[in-house]
Structure formats: structure tokens, C-alpha cells
Amino acid sequence: MDTSATQSVIKPQHRSHSERSVWAKLMKSKLTYLMILPGLIYFLIFKYLPMWGLIIAFQDYQPFLGIRGSQWVGLEHFERLFREPTFWMLFRNTIMLFVLNLLFFFPVPIMLALMLNEVRVKYFQRTVQTLIYIPHFMSWAIVVSLTYVMFTTQGGLINEWLASLGFAKISFLTEEAWFRPLYVMQVIWREAGWGTIIYLAAIAAVDTQLYEAARMDGAGRFRQLWHVTLPAIRSTIIVLLILKVGDILELGFDHIFLMLNGANREVSEIFDTYVYTAGLRQGQFSYSAAVGFFKAVVGLIMIVFANKLAKKYGEEGIY
């Protein structure tokens, strides 16, 4: 009886000591947690709480009945999505644009960061960085408007220049063959400079002694870049690549919507614009939620697969 009584007294004291220890650690780093708090609140309100609304993907949702009162239909909307004749067109267009982004856009920030790192005149380096960052702060409406001004057949700069050289004008904005090149060029122009920030930060963290050792071994600038800089930022590249793969069906609505028209719809219509048409314009809330749910599941599967593949080849991955 004495032993059990002693244990009953000791255990509450142990728990309270543990609680005090956790609280002490929190208070010690309170400014750090306070800085993180706005981001946590943002993700909680705008990312996690809205996930409750995914229930309507399995219902025949009626706004006046609400989520609790709407009829449950199970996987009916998902079956409809896969039976739609436009599904494979949407899937093909989305995957094609993602692959083009991965092949042509993803390496550009890496190359820009490596080139900027080799610039020894700091004033010139900062000037170039500022110039390539500016497009990121322009909305897609401005970017597409600039594209229209340059490529339209009605007085566009490019077409007027072609005409002055004796060539026929080209309908860049309506021909299907030109939609994807224009899309990739716009993404590179707007986002490549901004994408260098993370890579430049990773390069700045590389131990300078590695460069000194490489120079002592006779390595020039290019060999230092290839054998020191690139291996040092490889983990950063892998993490960003995994995150990029997770966005395989998330290309962004506003950019594509502004470029989409009746003439190029066969190559420009993607899941994001389809959700807008079905959900907001036609009021098919449950069906559009099912399409969004499908996109999220595919993205999750791709992240898990890419992360496992990275770990298989000795990289850290994202978890």
C-alpha cells in the first residue's frame, strides 16, 4: 500500500514538471512562435477549415438545403467526370502544360541564380536582380495584356515587324500551335527571376572553404560551379522539384483563363478553367468540388511518389 501511495503522489508531480518544461520552452522561444502565428492562422482558416466543404463532392448539394440537408450521392460525380468526353482533353492539356513548365521553366531560375552568383560587381548584380524580380509583381492580366499588344494581328509589334520584312502576319493569339509556346514564355518572363531567391539563398550558405579547396586543386570557375555549387544546392533543387510535381494538375486559373478563347480551346482548356465553368457559371457545385477533389488526390499521390523516389536515391525529401 505504501508503494502504490508513493506512485500516486509521484506521477502527478512528474506530469506537472513535464508540462512546466514544455511551457518553459514555449516561453523561451515565444517571439519565434509569435512570428509563426500569422502563418498558422492563415493556413488554418484558408486551407484546413475549407476542407470540410469537400463533403459536397459526394452530395447533390443544394445551397438552400446546406451540407447537412443535401442528398448523399456517393461517387456519382466522380463517375460522371471520368465518363465526360472532355475529360481526356482536359487531362492531356493540363499534363502537357505541366511537362512544358517542368522542362523549360523549372531549370531557368537555377541557371539564373548560378549566373548571378558568378557576377562579382555587386551593383550590377543587384540591378539585374531587381529588374528580373519586377515582372513577378505584375498580375497575369497585365502580362496577358502586354502579350496581346505585342502579338495581335491588329497593329501588334511583332506582326508589324514581320510585315515590314515581307512576311505574312501570324495569328499568335488564336492559333492552337502558338498557345503553349506563348504560355511557357509568359511563365518564364514573370516567375523566373522571383524563383532565383531560394537558390541564391542556398548558394550563399555554401562553405567558402570548398571553393578555396577547389581552386587549390586547379579548378576554374566552371568546374567550381559544377563540382561545388550544384552539389551543394542539390537538396534544395530536389525539394522544390517534389513540390512542383505536387502541382501537376494545378496550373492556375487566371493565367489560362485570360489566354483562353474559342479558337484555341482544344489545347487551352484545363481542369482549373473547367471547374470555373461548371461550378460558378453553371452552378454545378458538387460536380466542380469532385473535380477539385480529384486534382488534390492526384497531387498528393505525386508528392508521395516523388518523395519516395528521392529518398530511394539518397536524397532527404520533404518528410
From TrEMBL:
GO CC list: plasma membrane
Span of domain ABC transmembrane type-1: 91-306
Recorded topology in the membrane: Multi-pass membrane protein
InterPro entries for this protein: MetI-like, MetI-like_sf
Record's protein name: ABC transporter permease subunit
Sequence intervals crossing the membrane: 33-58, 95-116, 128-151, 192-213, 225-243, 285-306
Organism the protein comes from: Paenibacillus silvestris
Similarity-based family: Belongs to the binding-protein-dependent transport system permease family.
Compartments (UniProt record): Cell membrane; Membrane
Superkingdom as given in the UniProt entry: Bacteria
UniProtKB keywords: Membrane, Transmembrane, Transmembrane helix, Transport
UniProt record, GO biological process: transmembrane transport
